[in-house]
Amino acid sequence: MLLGCTAPTPAATETLPPPEPTTEPPMATSQAEDYRDGSLPVERRVELLLSEMTLAEKIGQMTLVEKNSITPEAVTEFAIGAVLSGGGGYPQPNTPEAWAEMVDGFQQSALDTRLGIPILYGVDAVHGHNNVYGAVIFPHNVGLGATRSPDLVRDIAQVTAVEMAATGANWNYAPVVAVPQDIRWGRTYEAYGEDPALVTELGVAFVEGLQGASLAEPSSVLATPKHFVADGGTAWGTSRTENYELDQGDAQIDEATLRAIHLPPYQAAIEVGAQSIMVSYSSWQGEKLHGHEYLLTDVLKGELGFEGFVVSDWQAINQIDTNYYEAVVKAINAGIDLNMVPYNYELFIQALTAAVENGDVPETRIDDAVRRILRAKFEMGLFEHPFSDSAYLEEVGSAEHRELARQAVRESLVLLKNDSAALPVADDARWIFVAGEAADNLGMQAGGWTIEWQGKTGNSLTEGTTILDAIEERAEGAGVQVQYNRFADYERITDDAGQPIIADVGIVIVAERPYAEGRGDSDDLTLSEFDVNAIQRMRERSERVVVLILSGRPLVITDQLDLADAWVAAWLPGTEGQGVADVLFGDYPFTGKLPYSWPRAMGQIPFDFTTLPETGYDAPLFPYGYGLDATNPQPVTVPECVP
Ligand code: BGC
Ligand code: BGC
């Protein structure tokens, strides 16, 4: 039994005597009111609590600390408002139970403060509760974009919320509602696609799924559309972070473009009740978003009427001024309400305290920030149920959750080419050869943000079914022999007479290796030599060749297109490889549609979408929305090159 899980602090009304009949003016009644009283309206509770807070307690509420940088005791001492696990921020051992104990421990420390304000505990559960060993891992958003299915996305978000609630994490840094205009960006796969309408529709569905019918439900968690705004609109080479190129760079676009392409998902998310929005590391027209008062305060909070809180990104305010004090002043005045410090919280608290005392940050700004944070906490029902819900523990990575992920994988597959009826695999096939490092590699099929921030190759990182396992299992049932060799080297596979076996179908899985954020910025999206060689070798040893692409974005395959009969974009499907086998073997149809235009050559990227698709258009290999249905094959021709 987890400490403190079963006995939430009773609402004050339950312990207070019923109000005495009184002839006194209303003043007396309001003095007896308590912010702990769950029957009072949220706005009233916010004001009651705020009026009791010291400056130190207010600044504590505005402080978000990474869990390895703070002890539970310090959460109490500094009245910290929020704690997070970054990518890879798991406890030892990495079990749902240990997570619950860790998060509940921080929560208890928050409840031990004078005012007992619960913390938000944040995680990046961007494709399932993906830092937790054994949690179900869904396809990354690029694959969900291909499904075009808001209902599916809503269900996925709901399952993710339940797995989070099991561990006490109540705040999700998702969905990414970036609208990437350049697939060289390392965060392309975190987004639903290049089209603002698609991103808006699926982003809204994800917010709805996480937050449920009411944020106060125990299985609801707080959503965080991110990263505000135009993180997907930056120009190559403008980043000043590490060796990043696009990530954290500068969106050199005019305001009309920013409003038309990058703003709509936020507007829609606010309309369905988003209460927290994360700011982008990137800049707009040379000015960092973290110091951008016009966009954060005038546009987001003013024009769009956002009443929730604005959270900064990881150590991001440090980027807006080399002088930390100045950075803090600028960021808070620009409209940041909660600062993801994430390490040196004492330094932040000192700086902001000094800034208020010096009059550089007005107290009204502090009160506004704290009001927004408290409003979300009250609406979440955190004061009533602050702890993890152990009833959900058995649902983490459950068969039912995995079934939903398998469905998502099926629906995310996009059939790019299908000549010679290569797919689905024919009923009379007797031999299947499988090649490619990623065929038997959970880490590669899950991508970045899986257990570790950057993800990790191999099969040990979590539980799931590799694509090879799934193919073998399905083939066995159909009496088909499967041979796997990473390099497509089947020299030793011969018949009784010593003659080489020619497989009916050869499946080559080509892939990107896992990456996250700017580390995935790349101006070379062509296939690796290893993968090209595997396709070539497979050609020699099988009647039909099928290439499955595991990647966070379209890869340039023009030169290899003719080497295979069929090509399938499988994105980053996650832990449920059976979804791939389901469709390859024809148990389910191909229904996915491209969420990004598929380039013919690197030189085409970024596409000039303003000229797409009507005029003088430098045609992609496959346009946005493209996707075949295996029952109705169409020949694929490579469009003429535009010089
Ligand atoms: C990312 C955010 C993420 C945060 C916390 C940052 O590096 O940009 O998307 O929410 O880290 O992990
Ligand atoms: C953390 C991530 C974070 C990143 C930012 C990593 O160490 O694990 O969550 O997004 O740093 O640079």
Characterise the protein shown here.
The chain is of the alpha/beta class and 643 residues long. It has helices at residues 12-15, 26-32, 42-52, 55-61, 72-77, 96-111, 141-147, 150-167, 196-211, 255-262, 264-271, 293-303, 324-334, 345-357, 363-379, 399-412, 442-446, 467-477, 529-541, 578-584; strands at 63-66, 82-84, 120-123, 171-172, 250-251, 276-278, 283-284, 287-288, 309-311, 339-340, 414-418, 431-435, 481-484, 503-511, 542-550, 566-569. The chain has a six-stranded mixed β-sheet with strand order 11-16-15-14-12-13, sandwiched between helices. Strands 4-3-2-1-10 form a five-stranded parallel β-sheet. Strands 5-7-8 form a three-stranded mixed β-sheet, with no helix packed on it. The longest helix has 18 residues, at 150-167. The chain is globular, with a radius of gyration of 26 Å. The termini are far apart. The structure holds beta-D-glucopyranose (2 copies).
